[in-house]
Each structure stands twice: as C-alpha cells, then as structure tokens.
Amino acid sequence: MSDDLRQARLKKLAALRELGLDPYGQRFPGAIPVREALGLFVEGREDVAVTVAGRLMALRKMGKAQFADLHDITGKIQVYVREDKMDPAQAARFPHLDLYDLLGVSGTLFRTRTGEVTIAARELTPLAKALNPPPEKWHGLTDVEVRYRKRYLDLIANPEVRETFLRRTRIIASIRRELDARGFVEVETPMMHPIPGGAAARPFITHHNSLDMDLYLRIAPELYLKRLLVGGFPKVYEINRNFRNEGFSTKHNPEFTMMEVYEALGDYSTMMELTEQLVATLAREVSPAHRIPFDGAVYDFTPPWRRVAYMDLFREHAGVAWGDAAAIRAKAAAAGLPTGSRPVEAVANDLFEKYCEPTLTGPVFVIDYPTAICPLTKAKRDRPEICERFEAHVAGMEIANAFTELNDPIDQRARFECQLANKDEGMARIDENFLDALGYGMPPAGGLGIGIDRVVMLLTNSKSIRDVILFPMMREQEAS
RNA sequence: GGGGGCGUAGCUCAGUCCGGUAGAGCAACGGUCUUUUAAACCGUUGGCCGUGGGUUCAAAUCCCACCGCCCUCACCA
C-alpha cells in the first residue's frame, strides 16, 4: 500500500530528527545553481569546493559508496558519497534519505572514472523530507490527468515541461520588452465588470456583498483600454486574464491570457505590422532560422505575411454568394449550423468559419470583415458594409484579432443597439459609460488582441492549450 | 450536450476479445557489492482491478448506471 511507502519515509524522518537534524531545513546560504557548480570544475583539480541544493532524483548504492543525482532547475549534478571516508556524524545522515528529498550538499568537485563531474560529498543538509512516493523514474509521469492536476510533479519529472513553461515566461517578457521599446505603456484595467463587454461571450458572474451587486469577470479589457485612449494615453497595452464561461477544448481554457494593444493615430494596418514584427521577433528567439515546427508542419513568420480579403475567401470556399440570404440560410441549415432569427451576416460568418478558415495554414491575415459582425470596428470610408478588421490565422488557430477602432459615439451606439436587438449575439446591456467616454473624443486608433496561450502553443509545439497553462481548468476532484 | 477511447500495486504497464486463486518492471523493505549512470545480483512486502448495481456455481474480464480523464463534434466576436 502507498501507506507502507509513507511509513518507511516517516521512519527516516524520525531518524533524522534523532540525529538532531531538522528534516525540513532552514535558511541555506551559499548554494549555487547546479549548472554554475559544474562550470567551476577545473580539469585535474579535486579541491574546488561547492555547495548546491536540489532534489534527490536517483540513488545508486554500491556498498560503502553511493552515487546520487541531485536536480535543480538548471540541471543535474552527481553526488558521490563514501561513508567510510567521511566524518562519521555526516555519514550517519545518508541512510535516511529518500528519492525526492530536498537536500543541500557541500563537497569538492572531481571527475569520475566514467567521466562525469561529481561532488564528493562532505556535508549533507536535509532541506525538506518527501513523504509521498515519487513517480517512476524511467517513464516519468505520463498520466495526463495527474500531470495537469499535480503540475508540480509534472515539472519535477518531465524536463521538457519545465522548458515549455520557461519559454512561455520568456515569450511574455519579450513581448513586454518589444512593446515598451516602442513606447507602449502597460496598464491594468478591471477584471470585474458591472457590464461584460468588448467581446461576445458568456461571462462568469460573481457578487459583491456590500454593494449587493452582481459583477462579471471580464470577457475582454477592450472598453476600458479605449477609455484610456480618451484619457490621453496614446499607446497602451495590457497582458492579463480573460474569462469566458464556455465549453473548453484543446484550444480553449475558461481563463486565458490575452494581450490587447491600442495605438492612437494608428489603424489596422499599423496593427498588422506590429503583429508581424512581434511574432517574428518571438519566432526568431525560438528558432533563428525562422522555422517553427508545429503539429507536423513548419511555419515561417518572416514578414510580410500573406493578406487575403474575407470576401475573396468567402467567394472561393463558402459555396454560396454573400448577397444571397436564402442560399446562405439554406446552406447553414444543411450543415447543421444554427440559423433561427439571427442576422444573415452572422449565419454567413458561421459558414466562413466552417468552410473558409480551415483552408488557411498561415501565417495569414484575413482582412476586411463585414461590418455587420464587427460592432466595435470602423467601417471603410468608401464601403460602409466592409470594416477595417483583420484576424491572424496560423495552423487552424486564430492568434490575433485587430481593427481600426470605431470612435464615433453615435455610430457606436447604433451598432450596440443593433447588437442588442439580436439577442442571439449575447449582449446583455449597453455600456453607457463607455459611450459617454467616446462622447469626449477618442482619437482614431488601431487596436490588437493576441491570444498569448495560442502563440505559446505555436512556439512550443504544444497541441493542447493545457500544455501551456500551468494549472488548466479541471473538474474538482477529491485529493488522492 | 452527442460520438469514440481510457481507468488494474506509489509509478509505468500486461491480463479483458474467449469468465475459473491478481501479474511484470520501477519504487519500498532485507541482503552482497569501495567510481556507478534506468547500477547489478539474491530475497521480501505491497491490490475495494474507478464507484454502484446486475448476469453467473464463479466477474478485472460479460451487461447497466454513475464518476473522472483524453480525443472529436457541438457551443464559442
């Protein structure tokens, strides 16, 4: 039983206490990262002293000698223990170790007969006793459910998982660096909204007790970032969580990380250039040759990316004419898509997503969307039925969505009212405060949203969004 | 929500088709071993076979329901 394994470890914990040691350790100054320690080795010398701290991942006992593998985030170092040639008080500590214990080790570096740089241990300091038995050492932890529920074990046991999440961190840092260098200012806007807006999605509802008011976890920060444009911040961005109360999949997590950028005096063309440059920079950091492998294909993000007009794609692949409302509804119904009382453009867009988007490999910009499905986007001056919006698609995923922002408060109100009339579109209530803000004058601007999780998926060759979110949404389950 | 798959020791997995005493490797425990690399060798322990019901003389195995996970479709500005 697992309980037996635990009991064996508790016995060793007690033994450490009897030696006067604290199995859970104290401040441990002087430890250096494992990789750094390995770098201090000087060929031919065996007197270089180092101190490291890490997790005990393997133990090979050979009579009076034993070899241990100590891991930290930077790597692995082997520890050599000769019980008969050590201070007896120190030697007495070693029999009470278990795999996964956290240890501090001091000693001198040498090279073993088989060539591995190793610490000859002089001093051992317990830092934390592991009471739970570890996953199997060779196959590691493969059960995806356990990997997601106990991500800490996944990170310990699977080095490539560590690498994926470190890369995620580097990607986000790089985005910030690039935007900061271009003069964008990072801001934080509310996560709890009285009216959910800026996207069409079902929100999570929560409640503020002392105000006795329902609040919504934000589905997008858009309407608040635009208020900042009104307020005179010309270039703002936010990287933070959005929440959408919808089904989840390999490409959707209920909470996900979105970056939104707004640039006063720009438009969707400037956002297209920004998108290309940002993603290309990230891709170059992953692969200087600009060859990004993903799901069996290879993508090159070198600008400029292909641009294709929405209507051209529709004409080519939808199988019906954009203007033929009856044919559009008939085709959608035949395809099992909802038609009902929805506006014909919304139904047509379903056809677009079903028949046109899958033909895109990318990276590609789909540009110039029908105005009817873009309530926050400025229409083209000469063609009011088309608006200045693009989506960037790669490998069947939408990774970016941007437009020339609608800044006419009267037009914006009309669009909201039209949206509200179609209950189907999911809008609950018009955000009057947002319209009021536009009434003070918002500069013409380009706005861009990039789904960070999906970009990280692309750049880490991860097929599931759960592999790039440390703690993906899971049904609650009792602790095991 | 629909369809498909999976759930057996702490971990990685056989066994299920075709019902007949619950298996292996790793880990643990006890030995041998003074430079090993998944150390090796000898021995021992460890199981509500996801949960509940049914069929049967007999169920890990067949049937039903439920729980959880994965894939897929649907939903999804």
Defining traits:
alpha+beta, 31% helix, RNA-binding, 480 residues, single chain, five-stranded mixed barrel, 26% strand, eight-stranded mixed beta sheet, elongated
What can you see in these coordinates?
The protein has 480 residues and is α+β, with helices and mostly antiparallel strands. It contains 14 helices and 18 strands. The protein has helices at residues 2-18, 34-39, 88-91, 144-149, 151-157, 159-181, 222-230, 268-286, 310-317, 325-334, 344-356, 409-421, 432-438, 452-460; strands at residues 49-62, 65-72, 75-82, 102-111, 117-128, 185-186, 192-193, 205-208, 213-217, 235-243, 255-264, 292-294, 297-299, 306-309, 364-370, 386-394, 397-404, 445-451. The strands form 4 sheets. Strands 6-10-11-18-17-16-15-14 form an 8-stranded mixed β-sheet, sandwiched between helices. A 5-stranded mixed beta barrel has the order 1-2-3-5-4. It has a 3-stranded antiparallel β-sheet with strand order 7-9-8, with no helix packed on it. A hairpin with a 5-residue loop joins strand 4 and strand 5. The radius of gyration is 29 Å and the shape is elongated. It starts with a helix and ends in a 20-residue tail after the last helix. The relative contact order is 0.10. The model has no long low-confidence stretch (mean pLDDT 91). It binds one RNA strand of 77 nucleotides through helix 1, strand 1, strand 2, strand 3 and helix 4.
